[in-house]
Design a protein that fits this description.
The chain is built from 5 helices and 17 strands. It is an alpha+beta fold. It has 2 domains: 86-206 and 280-371, Beta Barrel (Porin); 211-278, no CATH class. It has a 12-stranded antiparallel β-sheet, with no helix packed on it. The chain has a 3-stranded antiparallel β-sheet with strand order 10-11-12. A two-stranded antiparallel sheet has the order 2-3. Strand 6 and strand 7 (160-169) form a beta hairpin.
């Protein structure tokens, strides 16, 4: 009996002490799927988008303060004129290698209010490869709305640079598409020159819709223009009180003084905008040459670039700028970014860019001094 009880006590330990083998079901070969390797196109696409930044931001602030206007026509009356708040809505994607003097974007959010002057440079910080920027900026300032967009794709090679860009800046009233192909010669790592060709598509800048309405005296027959082109009318039934009517028959002025001072300027502006919108875009071929210089140290940096288009192929287009300018002209652009730290506490900086195309100029600049109390 004692032996039987002893065997029953040690039996569970013997059973659990044995090795246990688990046999898993073996799937059929048809069920085993081989992982697909990414295609070369997928690898290339992933490489080009690596380190790119997608951003969207909405910024706002109050506009100018309310203005109170006064009138004494029917006794003293007042009217408060309010201006809606200013805002900017920015959307974009960019992959542009930053220069040494630019802040590291990984340490801050991009809100669209930054002004990266170096984006306008012909040669980027990247020694070779693709760079791109696609940005839309919807903005309202003092009650007026503007759309600005800048999209470009640039490839930098050892001895050439290719770039296509579309720029629209309603604030500066400029809009064009540009493609350039340039040969690049590097003297050293800091300085290079380039030369090549540029093709630009734009509206016919220089065209003056009012030129056909200018009299020999230099004045404009604005009343005839308003009647014949814009549908306005004049009621002469009362010789002592002319009435000027809009295309809908509404009275817009009861005197010649108001007609000429208030209504006519708006009519001329509307007419010019209408005629410009009806014209087809024109294509121009130009020769371009330029340079790029970049030097950076911890306490001193200088980045400058310039582009000049001294010659443009004359075309038979009736809206060619050659026709309105009376011959050839020079277009140019450039930029400068400079910084110097005198000490750990004191430093100065200057940065800006300038464009002049078809005798139209637009620019940005910033300069200042910083002093840090240590």
């Amino acid at each position: 009996m004692r032996k039987l009880i002893f065997l029953l006590c040690i039996l569970p330990f013997v059973m659990y002490g044995q090795d246990t083998k688990v046999i898993l079901p073996v799937p059929n070969k048809e069920e085993v799927k081989e992982k697909k390797k990414p295609s070369e196109f997928s690898k290339r696409l992933k490489k080009e988008f690596k380190y790119s930044t997608f951003y969207a931001a909405y910024n706002g602030n109050n506009s100018i303060s309310d203005v109170t206007s006064y009138s004494v026509t029917d006794g003293l009356t007042t009217e408060k004129i309010s201006t809606p708040y200013d805002y900017s809505a920015v959307f974009g994607v960019r992959k542009i290698q930053r220069f040494g003097y630019e802040p590291n974007i990984q340490n801050r959010f991009k809100n669209g209010t930054e002004n990266s002057f170096s984006d306008a440079a012909t040669i980027g910080s990247k020694s070779k490869g693709f760079e791109y920027l696609f940005e839309w900026d919807f903005r309202r300032q003092q009650g007026k709305s503007f759309l600005s967009q800048d999209h470009f794709l640039r490839y930098i090679g050892d001895w050439y640079v290719v770039k296509v860009e579309y720029l629209q800046d309603q604030f500066a009233d400029i809009n064009y598409f540009e493609a350039s192909q340039r040969y690049r010669y590097k003297f050293n790592r800091k300085f290079s020159v380039n030369a090549g060709f540029v093709q630009r598509i734009s509206e016919p800048y220089g065209f003056d819709p009012l030129a056909d309405w200018v009299l020999q005296t230099g004045d404009i027959h604005f009343t005839n223009l308003a009647i014949e082109e814009m549908g306005y009318g004049v009621d002469f039934s009362d010789v002592d009180n002319y009435q000027y009517l809009d295309p809908n028959g509404n009275i817009v002025a009861n005197s010649t003084e108001v007609w000429e001072a208030v209504v006519i300027p708006q009519i001329l502006s509307d007419y010019v905008d209408r005629e410009r919108a009806l014209l087809p875009n024109k294509l121009e071929y130009s020769f371009v040459m330029g340079f790029d210089y970049y030097k950076y140290t911890k306490d001193f940096w200088l980045h400058s670039w310039a582009n000049v288009m001294p010659y443009h192929i004359k075309s038979n287009d009736q809206y060619s700028y050659n026709k309105y300018n009376g011959g050839n002209w020079v277009d140019y652009s450039g930029g400068l970014i400079f910084g110097y730290r005198f000490t750990k506490s004191l430093g100065i900086f200057t940065e800006g860019k300038y464009h002049k195309y078809w005798n139209r100029s637009w620019y940005d600049f910033s300069m200042g001094i910083n002093f840090i109390i240590l």
